[in-house]
Specification:
Blueprint (H helix, E strand, L loop, with lengths): L1 H15 L9 H6 L3 E4 L4 E5 L9 E4 L8 E3 L1 H6 L1 E4 L2 H7 L1 H7 L10 E2 H5 L13 E4 L4 H16 L12
Length: about 170
């Protein structure tokens, strides 16, 4: 796989004009990162508490069924957890596994994403705070993300208006 990782990094480096470097040591990569994003089909966690340094933002995106898991329950229990949809994350996200392992309860979750965006709950409150975003996926958030990517790609300040047939 190292050859595929290197080829992928070169492809992205050229496409994005950004510094992209494949690594062979996941723990070292996590420890050196300010942002960790997982998006896999893993059925067992591979990001552990000791891989994440103070101040890191972790987005767990791949655990979208009760059998998928990317983040160690101990990591979630140690961090400020924000869920896209709390009930859904408790049923199928990495949060589901943390609750099942008795590492945390639903009431330990800091906020839902909508609460942070609306200003009803604070986001980061200290430089060293580790925030874990447990994302199980919602269609509305997918549309909002796609609109933001579209705006940035086309240089538009606002999203185009869409018309729907009733």
């Amino acid at each position: 796989m190292p050859g595929k990782a290197a080829a992928f990094a070169v492809s992205l480096r050229d496409e994005l004009a950004a510094a992209i470097e494949p690594v062979g040591d996941l723990a070292a990569a996590g420890a050196a990162s300010d942002i960790v994003i997982t998006c896999t089909t893993s059925q067992r966690f591979f990001i552990t508490r000791d891989m994440v340094q103070p101040g890191t933002f972790v987005a767990g995106v791949g655990a979208d069924s009760e059998h998928k898991q990317e983040l160690d329950p101990a990591l979630l229990a140690h961090c400020t957890v924000v869920a896209d949809l709390l009930d859904q994350c408790c049923a199928i996200g990495d949060l589901h596994h943390a609750i099942e392992a008795n590492a945390m309860r639903q009431s330990d979750v800091h906020a839902e994403l909508g609460q942070v965006i609306a200003g009803a709950r604070p986001g980061r409150t200290s430089v060293g705070q580790i925030i874990v975003f447990d994302s199980t996926g919602t269609a509305l958030q997918d549309v909002a993300a796609a609109a933001a990517v579209y705006r940035r790609a086309t240089g538009q300040a606002q999203c185009p208006r869409f018309a729907f047939d009733a």
